[in-house]
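Morning F.,

Quick status update on the modeling queue. The single chain you submitted on Monday has been processed. Sequence for confirmation:
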Amino acid sequence: MVMLPAAQVFRKDPQEVGALPDGEALSGQTNGSEIKTVTQHQALLRQVFRTRNFWTILLIWLVMAFSSVFIMTHIVPHAIDIGFSQVESTTILSFGGIAMIAGRFFAGVSVKKIAVVSSLIQFAAILSLMWVKEL
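Structure tokens below.
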């Protein structure tokens, strides 16, 4: 209820603050002549829906989102069923959420710092630890 009215206060067009669409400031001129020379590639939505890359990325994101939401939805009832108290079960959910946020942050940082292939190998190695009984 607060977000919709608050969104009306924000400036929607970067030209209103004298910036280009990518957030960089205009060099010297603010009369709009430089802004008109900026071109943007605008693909039609139908063209995007016809590409294989779009559907591949969409499928990957849907699988990741489904698996995350499915696990997080059922973790508290499962923990209660195996003997944890309700407070302990919600604590598990909280730590899981914090770990997911931290993991996404560090995954993004590591992909930028090191090659994509080696970071995927590292993530696969970390995920394989789920099946390890003892270290």
